[in-house]
Amino acid sequence: LLLPFKALAELEITIYAFRTSNDLSYKTYSYDVIEPEEIKTLPSVNMVQSGPDGQMSSIFLRGTNSNHTLITLNGIAIKDHSTPQGTDDLSQHSFLGVDRIEVIKGPMGSTYGPNSIGGTINMITNANDENSVSISHGSNNTNTQVLKFGKVINNTLVDFRIENETSDGISVVDGDEKDSLKNRNYILQTESYLGNGLVLKSNMIETNNHTNLDKSSDYTDYTADWQFNNYYLSLQDKDTEVTLNHTKHDRVYDDKGTKDIYKNDTTILLGKHSINVDNKTHTIGSEYETSNIEFDTNISGYVSNVDKTRNNTGYFYNLDQTLESGVQLHTGFRFDTPNTFDDQLTYRIGAENNGVRLSYATGYKAPTVYEMYGKDNWGFLGNENLIPEKSKTYEIGYRWDKGDIVFFKTEIDNLLKYENSTYVNDTKKSDRHGVELGLTHEIGPVIVNNNTAFVIAEDGDGKEIVRKPKWSNTTNFKYNNWFYDVNYYGSHIDIDSQTYARVKMKSVTTMDIGYSVNKGDLTFYGKMNNILDEDYQRPDGYNQDGRNFTLGFKKTF
Fold first, then answer.
1. Nearest alpha-carbon partner for 391 in 411, 417, 367, 414
2. Rounded distance, CA 103 to CA 22, Å?
3. Is the pLDDT assigned to residue 55 strictly greater than 90?
4. CB 117 within 8 A of CB 365
5. Which end of the chain has fewer CB within 10 Å, C or N?
6. Are strands 119-125 and 69-73 parallel, antiparallel or unpaired?
7. How far is 232 from 93, CA to CA, in rounded Å?
8. Cα torsion through 310, 78, 157, 11, rounded to 10
9. Alpha-carbon distances of 518 from 134, 243, 478, rounded to whole Å
10. Is 122 in contact with 17 (CB distance < 8 Å)?
């Protein structure tokens, strides 16, 4: 990944987001590189949000569970360990400063360690020297303002951005009260060229989200306040990286003065180095992570608490090589030494030649501190004897200039399930398998991109897992300054929000259209979402936006 520093492009600084320095290693795995706003429509990334923007979300990557996808920022995990089942809420993260998102499909345990059974969603920030202001207005009185300042000072690029977003929202469940949101986000990024190919990168991020919530019916005076802070400092060149990252999650749910509080502070120290010899790249590294996790719940009389520190040191090695025949090979393994359960070994083997790739990879999901040590006033008691969920993934794919197709199969052992007022490991094996197809075609001036996923997700008894449609598809048409999207989300099983019984949900097709035009230093844009005004819930009981629009402009100076 070549990320030239715009104002100092002649320096040809090369920065790698992943923990390898071989330019060809990406050929052996499946991935998508997308714009941040496309994350909700990527077929292999099934993002289920309990209502419109601002509400809580879950991610199901390749049919795996919502806690099987790892979210990273510039290659560093930013997981919220205070969530009881280990589910991260990507929708709460601002994409302010995020240049692109790389979705790596399949286990990356040999590189990142735990919690990436389904894959990894890596948000990449990228500083530049642009100065601009952006303002937009949309349906439900949704307003967004972004101010950006960039400047090169001697050998350092400084990039500072502020974002403010407010919206009246809609009622998440059918009712009279609209569930509004108010978000304020900041990011300060720097990149300093130190000579001899060294770059010192930093970013400081603060996200503050305030959202009104509903319960199973229209409900007033129930709010969520979520604060996310991230501090990143990295010294790196093409072959070496030393990174220190601190992440803080602080969530407060307030029900008429009664509060649930979740807190997580995580510090990660990463060091890696690559050696290139005879078309072989050897990458060795170590990563130390320590997390302080605590929460205390009281809403609706549910009293539960956790206060725990978890540490882990991981050691990883990757070998990437190109044979004389042109075959690209990847071999990697990682050994983790967590303090709350047994040591773990994961590995990955991949090969590619003339577009054809094969791989076999293992991964694991760590049981959360709540699952192991939590307790509540309704009889729940954590199980300290839990072991990690483990996966094996087989994959064969073919990538060419106009498309990519891949068949995959993931087997998961030791899945956690709730039983007899605690969590236990299931002795049965769960199966997830399917096919993904991406195609690009040009018809005169029209560019057509189509992405399709077909996924079967079953538990150990062969029972279809909820909220995982077999079929999903996104088609995008681009013509000059216009774009048109068709998004298909197939029928699936869900849980009835009132009776908690399994219920069949019908398929939904939504369509969006947009236009943007540049006039010198001005960009004008507009978008109409769900133009057919489809009325649907996802998940059951939670309304989604009907027809809605956004109009805005951006001025650079």
1. 411
2. 19
3. no
4. yes
5. C
6. parallel
7. 16
8. 90
9. 13, 39, 16
10. yes
Give the Cβ contact number of residue 552 at 10 Å: 19
Q: What is the pLDDT of residues 238-261, one digit of tens each?
A: 899 999 999 999 999 999 999 999
Bridging pattern class, strands 492-495 and 57-61: unpaired
What residues contact 186, with CB distance under 8 A and at least 6 apart? 96, 160, 161, 162, 163, 204, 205, 206, 207
- The pLDDT of residue 6 is 34
Write the CA distances from 422 to 379, 415, 438, integer angstroms.
9, 14, 42
Between residues 221 and 268, the one the model is more confident about: 268
Structure confidence at residue 18 as a pLDDT band (50, 70, 90): low
195 CB burial (10 A radius; 0-12, 13-18, 19+): exposed
Alpha-carbon gap, residue 196 to 450, rounded angstroms: 43
- DSSP H or E run through 241: strand 240-255
- Contact predicate 508/534, CB 8 Å: yes
Q: Report residue 173 CA to chain centroid gap.
A: 26
H/E stretch holding 230 = strand 222-236
Q: What is the pTM of this model?
A: 0.93
Helix (H) / strand (E) containing 384: none
Q: How many residues does this entry show for the chain?
A: 557
Say which residue the tokens 């699952």 belong to.
Answer: 371
Q: Does residue 477 surpass a pLDDT of 70?
A: yes
Q: Give the residue among 124, 37, 25 at the shortest CA–CA distance from 76.
A: 124
Over the stretch 480-496, which tens digit does the pLDDT of each residue have? 999 999 999 999 999 99
Residues 544 and 538: beta-carbon distance below 8 Å: yes
Residues forming a β-bridge with 349 = 331, 360
Residues 126 and 201: their CA atoms lie apart, in Å, by 10
Cis peptide leading into 539, omega within 30 of 0? yes
pLDDT band of residue 11 (cuts 50, 70, 90) is: very low
Check residue 112 and report its DSSP letter: H
Q: What is the 3-class SS of 314-346, one letter each residue?
A: EEEEEEEEECCCCCEEEEEEEEECCCCCCCEEE
pLDDT digits (tens, 9 = 90+) for 186-205: 999 999 999 999 999 999 99
Strand-strand pairing, 132-138 and 548-556? antiparallel
First to last CA, the chain: 29
Tell me the helices (H) and strands (E) count for the chain, helix number first.
2, 34
How far is residue 236's CA from residue 199's CA, in Å, rounded to a whole number?
Answer: 5
Q: What does the pLDDT look like over 116-131, one tens digit per residue? A: 999 999 999 999 999 9
Pair 170, 543: CB distance under 8 Å: yes
Q: Which residue has the tokens 């120290």?
A: 269
Tokens 């994409």 correspond to: 95
Q: How far apart are CA 158 and CA 95, in angstroms?
A: 18
| Alpha carbon 54 to chain centroid, angstroms | 16
Residue from 270, 264, 223, 225 nearest 244 by CA: 270
Q: Is residue 500 left, alpha or beta, with left meaning phi > 0 and alpha meaning psi from -120 to 50?
A: left
Output the six-digit token pair for 525: 């844009």
Q: What is the per-residue pLDDT for 220?
A: 87
